[in-house]
Design goal:
Two copies of one chain form a homodimer.
Chain A lengths: L1 E5 L12 E5 L9 E10 L3 H5 L20 E8 L9 E4 L6 E5 L4 E3 L16 H13 L7 E4 L5 H12 L4 E6 L2 H9 L5 E4 L5 H8 L4 E6 L3 H10 E9 L20 H4 L3 E4 L9 H13 L7 E5 L4 H9 L6 E5 L1
Parallel strand pairs in A: 8-9, 8-11, 9-10, 11-12, 12-13, 14-15
Antiparallel strand pairs in A: 1-2, 3-4, 3-6, 3-15, 4-5, 5-7
Chain lengths: 331, 331
Amino acid sequence: MQEIRLASRPTGWPTADNFELAETTTPEPGDGQVLVRNLFMSVDPYMRGRMNDTKSYVAPFAVGEPLDGGAIGEVVASNSPDVPVGAHVTHALGWREFSVLDAARVRVVDPAAAPSLSAYLGVLGMTGLTAYVGLLDIARFREGDTVFVSGAAGAVGSIVGQIARLKGAKRVIGSAGSAEKARRLVEEFGFDAAFNYKDAPVREQLSAAAPDGIDVYFDNVGGEHLEAAIASLTKFGRIALCGAIAQYNDTAPPAAPRNMASAIGKELNLRGFIVGNHFHRMPDFLAEAAPWLRDGSLAARETVVDGLANAPEAFLGLLRGENIGKMIVRL
Amino acid sequence: MQEIRLASRPTGWPTADNFELAETTTPEPGDGQVLVRNLFMSVDPYMRGRMNDTKSYVAPFAVGEPLDGGAIGEVVASNSPDVPVGAHVTHALGWREFSVLDAARVRVVDPAAAPSLSAYLGVLGMTGLTAYVGLLDIARFREGDTVFVSGAAGAVGSIVGQIARLKGAKRVIGSAGSAEKARRLVEEFGFDAAFNYKDAPVREQLSAAAPDGIDVYFDNVGGEHLEAAIASLTKFGRIALCGAIAQYNDTAPPAAPRNMASAIGKELNLRGFIVGNHFHRMPDFLAEAAPWLRDGSLAARETVVDGLANAPEAFLGLLRGENIGKMIVRL
């Protein structure tokens, strides 16, 4: 079987040289374990942090070892009565053709309940839950709020904007990295306004799109976007700090935000979060999102790259912002 | 009577020239109004912001008009049955010898219930309530937390540290602007550790004082202190953003904090607040603080400047950090 290993740690932007496609023996499942043939895997911005040798909320990848991350596949051998051969399961050992896991480490899903198997890695998985928890629990979205989302054409951002709309936002504004993405935010995802952050300073464009200010900011980007949002937030505004993709490849720390002092008078609330501590909300999320997905009120776009060998390129493309919606690798 | 007017708006650090001591006619109280002879007035860091012509949570001072702010005095004429002559009242029209106010705009206090009348401007007034609300409600302090306070020798900071100690903090750390202040934080206010932030980078000194990290940061300072605190905060750490005195006189925005992205993985919560929206907590605060003050477990220091004419100098000294505890002007 094939797997992708971390060949070396990047400094700044990663390149194809940091990854290695390796041949290895397909492992045998032990007692209570299953062997999964992977069908789809996820590449996510947070994986960039794991390529560094720094302590964070997840352990760094080890040089010379395979990467890991969200994947979905079919059980092809099982030593567990709970997870039979033929079951479809999601798990956390992607970046390889076959994975061996304890049965307790996989989650059986129903292929018939989703528009595609890969949805369990995106809109019906961690991605969707991240959007849901961040908007509702962390930023405490309320009906009538004006919401700004950065990285809005990405996997999480595109769902945040749509949930805000479905839950009665007054106005939903998104930023993205191209005119094409901004256009699709409005036309396909139902944002009220969107802009290409490369066109002009975020502060100016946000202010023009939300002349009365914003109540909630969902931050996938950090840096200049965060500073602009702090400037636009109204009294008691709320920020969910979810990602900072603008600076994941920076070798020097960013200068922004320089206006934190205005969070005092406006009594802003900024909260960082990672979805791992919010799994208990998955049933609530699925109960709302599955019907939205079925009746078409929630659009879930994917950018699909074929072949495990192309997974590094899919990941690099994600960091460059080449995806619309969830970036998926089909094995 | 005399009053202090705003002569001109400062750029950067204010100077004595921005203030004017003026003679004016002592006003007569109208229907339902009282005339108060002021005995003490408060100077506070937030007043610096009101010297600028910028919209904030309180209106700017007007050039050529008297300043205002917290004061306490004795009623010398009254057209209100609710507030008799001889009553002692706190109100918001300081910076002048006599104030006329609607009776509804003053609060009658009991001189016998406080160690000094001026305490109603400090430890038993807005200052104490700011410390209490910020620590308990905004930063959600819990017994066993390690707490870091900046501007810790100031009016609010010195009370924050003491409340944290009285409520069972594991460790209380303060920063201040001189070795003398740092010494007094430990010796007079019961902090476990304190440092002079001018001695070495805050990040290094905080890390040395709190090798296991901090759980709560009460920010009176902003800038480098805020960045250092974000670096030291543990998982689910909380920040009360109360002031940013380090940058009130800056003409360019500060560069820090450059590490906001680490608020994501640590799931930090940063909340700005102003005490004006938390007056409902005054009874709870007084019920706890008055006994502490009586039995000596809460030390309330004041730096007292004599004479209305010296109020501008008191205010400038406050901005330069020349006070220990509450800066008070005795009229």
